[in-house]
Amino acid sequence: MNAVITGASKGIGRAVAERLAKEGFNIAICARNAAALAEAKAAIQAQNSAVTVLAEQVDMGDKAQVLRFAETVKNAFGQVDILVNNAGIFTPGSLYEEAEGLLEQLMAVNLYSAYHLTRALLPEMMQLRKGHIFNLCSVASHKAYANGGSYSITKHALLGFSRNLREEMKPYGVRVTSISPGATLTASWDGFEAPPDRMMPPEDIATVVWTAFTLAKQTVVEDIVLRPVLGDI
Q1: Domain ranges of the chain
Q2: CATH class for the region spanning 2-226
Q3: Quick check: 189 pLDDT over 60?
Q4: Mind telling me which residue stretches traverse the membrane in this protein (predicted)?
Q5: Residue 40 and residue 45: Cα distance in Å, rounded?
Q6: How far is it, in rounded angstroms, from Cα 209 to Cα 75?
Q7: Are 171 and 215 in contact (CB under 8 A)?
Q8: From CA 182, how far away is CA 81, in angstroms rounded?
Q9: Is 199's pLDDT higher than 90?
């Protein structure tokens, strides 16, 4: 069994990769930072020495690099059983005062990367009539909020992509799940001081991915929303 997780050098992506490696999956991950990527690869491999861990330095905002990563994965693994589109950038701010070009940058990383990578890996899934695609959206995909800016726009778009893909994949037996976490204890929240129980651990998101995958093949969880017990921050 083979899994691909983008943006997996830390946070949710790394937690998912570690969990799937522990469950016996060969893992392909990517991230921009080479040092963080190497550290993540070692941590994922430590979960299960019997699996293969492929780690590629990729800028997910660059279409050419995304497509090269897809080809590397296909050459190494052939079929992909789980694809987790997790790569993303969180930049808060108001639409009327955020930096020029931010929308284009966030769209490239938060939406287009998932679009291009999914399209590149889909043919084999459709042919084999199996596979599960997880798109890491956000509570910002469901509800607009002040200071959401371009980030919220891209997350709304990613949810739309995921839901449309779900409809298209019904005849092919490929499952598609949108996961929309609220505040999760990742690097995106660096500098935010709060009690430990105010945010969710990324390992909980990994557990949700694994649970959804292990359901009967004729069952799919379409949309999952998770929030801290005390609500959004």
Answers
A1: 2-226
A2: alpha beta
A3: no
A4: none
A5: 8
A6: 25
A7: no
A8: 26
A9: no
Q: How confident is the model at residue 108 (pLDDT cuts 50, 70, 90)?
A: very high
On the question of pLDDT at 198 being above 90, the answer is no
Q: Whole-model pTM above 0.90?
A: yes
**DSSP secondary structure, 82-148, as one string:** EEEE---------TTTSPTTHHHHHHIIIIIHHHHHHHHHHHHHHHHT--EEEEE--GGGTS--TT-
Q: Catalytic residues, which ones?
A: 151
Cα distance from N-terminal residue to C-terminal residue, the chain = 37
Report how far residue 47's alpha carbon sits from residue 59's, in angstroms, rounded to the nearest whole number: 26
The C-alpha torsion from 113 through 98 and 230 to 143, rounded to 10°, is: -70
CB atoms within 10 A of CB 102: 17
pLDDT range class, residue 188, cuts 50, 70, 90? low
Cα(101)–Cα(114) distance, rounded to whole angstroms? 20
Give the per-residue pLDDT at 182: 86
CB 196 within 8 A of CB 151: no
Other C-beta atoms closer than 10 Å to the C-beta of 94 total 11
Residue with tokens 């839901």: 163
How far apart are the C-alpha atoms of 98 and 80, rounded to whole Å?
38
Is the separation of the CB atoms in 109 and 151 below 8 Å? no
